[in-house]
Inverse folding.
């Protein structure tokens, strides 16, 4: 089932939360609505499933206009952040609830519940009550309840936020597996870029009610459209340095290198302000464009070591390197950056 | 919670509740003895005080009519209060409608009104609509006065049920009514139970309203019947009075014994849902 949002807007009273949002989601695709809290991602999700009224614009499921359809009339499965299991039912009844409401026959209900329980490896839980289950098990039940009616669309609102770290990793691949097996068009709302990158086919990064960029995880990482996308995607985050163009070179205090041809070919003129973004893996002792400064932070993450390199001008570059330790806190060092992998942003924050 | 008996605390509580226990004990002793003012301990036990169970007391009618009336009165009050509070509480907790906040404020204000201050206007209103001296009239008045408390209690219980459960229910295809009935209501059952018990006690012990609004013998409640015995100058039979008093209080005591743990929910503010 394809989903299309056309100029979708949502306001609460006088507050415009989302304005003219366009989004196309392909059949069987899993897309992440990623963004900081308060960016409108959950609001968008609730509008798609019909819990929030749409202020203006249209929402399409395939060629069906579902903009003002009540949630009961859309075949949408939702996994809520708190799982929202029904505490007074056992697990079997929790999963069977959507089918009971549809008045399906007892035999059908039995068959479907057993089937989905098998897919999610939770047959032994059916007689228990939600309160007796661990977070991960509750998560599975919520997923089973959403999937048992074979929904056209599966929506998940921060499904991993209430799980502990180890379980989160496990459920990440589990959800992805189930989504691919069911072939259900899915939307995942999350504020965690790692979740979005690892689980989804594409990511729609939102900020302040607008979509900043839509793309595959690789596109988002290597070709961010603006500074916000560049800084939001990537962990440890990208470092920025402001400078100007002089003699076909980028010049900032303590950092200068020749601009690549594609930048020179664009409309950038001498004297213009420009910002460079350098991902931490492109700051390394072996790279040619030198920067000199002091190590102001070192953190070992086991396989990799994270450094903060502070230049005398005050600019800070993050560096992440595998292998042996290249310096200690307070060391004066002379490292380099890979100027071929630098991202350039104009004064408005858009990438050049 | 630690269920082991805390002996020092139990003894302490026993001591401070001793006056009440002794009074109940004496009520029981008096009801089965001939009262002798000169000695504390009765000299002669008798069942004569309990004669009201089988015969009418002259000038006061049958105790069974009063008991029947009281049962009807209490049951109706409970039914009305529970039905209206559970629906009004839901609306106030979950629905958006004009003047919701003001409504809540007014309900609270009504709760703080001592009902006795309203008695004259209620009296006049009942006279006007022709419900004075009828059981239905008192039932309506008592229910109305109990409602503000009930609505607030129920709203509190509804507030503890997460919104997401309701949203999940809608998403699973249930109508708003089905969500309320099948998903939300079962979760506030402790609240409903507590409110039912509370209004049962309030109804059973109500005295002033029926005394003023339903004084005649056909509509008389037990509390009024009992008071009638006491103020009857021609029948200064305190043994009888105490036996009827015991008869009146026993259902409440038995009821309380079985439901006290549920009643505690209401004072917990429903935080445990």
């Amino acid at each position: 089932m394809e989903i299309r949002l056309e100029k979708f807007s949502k306001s609460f009273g006088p507050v415009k939360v989302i304005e003219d949002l366009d989004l196309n989601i392909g059949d069987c695709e899993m897309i992440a609505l990623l963004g900081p809290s308060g960016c409108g991602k959950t609001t968008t999700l609730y509008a798609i499933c019909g819990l929030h009224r749409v202020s203006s614009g249209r929402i399409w499921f395939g060629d069906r206009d579902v903009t003002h359809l009540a949630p009961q009339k859309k075949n949408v499965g939702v996994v809520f952040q708190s799982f929202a299991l029904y505490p007074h039912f056992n697990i079997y009844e929790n999963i069977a609830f959507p089918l009971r409401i549809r008045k399906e026959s007892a035999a059908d209900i039995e068959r479907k519940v057993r089937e989905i329980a098998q897919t999610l490896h939770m047959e032994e839980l059916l007689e228990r009550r939600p309160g007796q289950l661990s977070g991960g098990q509750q998560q599975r039940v919520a997923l089973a309840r959403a999937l048992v009616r074979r929904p056209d669309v599966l929506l998940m609102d921060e499904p991993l936020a209430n799980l502990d770290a180890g379980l989160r990793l496990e459920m990440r691949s589990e959800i992805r597996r189930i989504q691919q097996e069911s072939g259900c068009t899915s939307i995942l709302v999350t504020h965690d870029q790692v979740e979005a990158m690892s689980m989804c086919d594409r990511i729609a990064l939102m900020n302040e009610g607008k979509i900043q960029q839509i793309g595959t995880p690789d596109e988002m990482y290597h070709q961010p459209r603006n500074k916000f996308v560049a800084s939001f995607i990537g962990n440890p985050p990208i470092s920025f340095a402001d400078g100007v163009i002089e003699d076909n070179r980028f010049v900032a205090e303590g950092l200068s290198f020749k601009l690549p041809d594609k930048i020179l070919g664009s409309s950038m003129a001498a004297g213009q302000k420009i910002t460079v973004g350098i991902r931490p893996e492109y700051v390394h002792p072996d790279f040619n464009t030198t920067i000199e400064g002091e190590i102001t932070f070192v953190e070992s993450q086991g396989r990799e070591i994270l450094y903060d390199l502070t230049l005398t001008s005050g600019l800070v570059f993050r560096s992440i390197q595998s292998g042996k330790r290249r310096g200690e806190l307070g060391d004066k060092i002379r490292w380099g950056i890979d100027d071929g992998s630098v991202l350039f942003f104009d004064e408005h924050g858009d990438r050049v | 919670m630690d269920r082991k008996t805390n002996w020092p605390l139990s003894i302490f509580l026993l001591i401070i509740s001793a006056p009440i226990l002794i009074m109940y004990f004496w009520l029981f002793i008096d009801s089965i003895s001939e009262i002798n003012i000169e000695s504390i301990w009765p000299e002669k036990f008798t069942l004569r005080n309990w004669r009201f169970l089988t015969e009418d007391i002259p000038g006061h009618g049958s105790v069974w009519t009063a008991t029947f009336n009281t049962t009807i009165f209490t049951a109706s009050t409970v039914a009305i209060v529970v039905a209206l509070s559970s629906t009004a509480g839901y609306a106030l907790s979950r629905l958006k409608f004009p003047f919701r906040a003001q409504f809540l404020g007014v309900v609270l204000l009504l709760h703080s009104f001592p009902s006795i201050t309203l008695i004259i206007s209620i009296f006049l209103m009942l006279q006007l609509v022709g419900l004075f001296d009828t059981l239905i009239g008192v039932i309506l008045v008592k229910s109305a006065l109990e409602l503000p408390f009930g609505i607030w209690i129920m709203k509190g219980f509804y507030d503890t049920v997460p919104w997401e459960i309701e949203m999940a229910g809608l998403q699973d295809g249930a109508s708003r009514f089905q969500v309320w009935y099948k998903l939300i209501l079962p979760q506030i059952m402790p609240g409903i139970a507590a409110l039912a018990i509370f209004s049962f006690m309030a109804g059973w012990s109500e005295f002033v309203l029926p005394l003023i609004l339903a004084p005649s013998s056909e509509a008389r409640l037990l509390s009024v019947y009992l008071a009638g015995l006491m103020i009857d100058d021609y029948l200064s039979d305190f043994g009888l009075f105490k036996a009827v008093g015991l008869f009146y209080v026993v259902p409440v005591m038995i009821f309380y014994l079985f439901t006290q743990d549920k009643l505690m929910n209401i004072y917990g503010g429903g935080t445990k849902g």
Observations:
- The radius of gyration of chain A is 24 Å.
- The domain at 239-345 of chain A is CATH 2.40.50.140 (OB fold (Dihydrolipoamide Acetyltransferase, E2P)).
- The first strand of chain A starts at residue 3 and ends at 12.
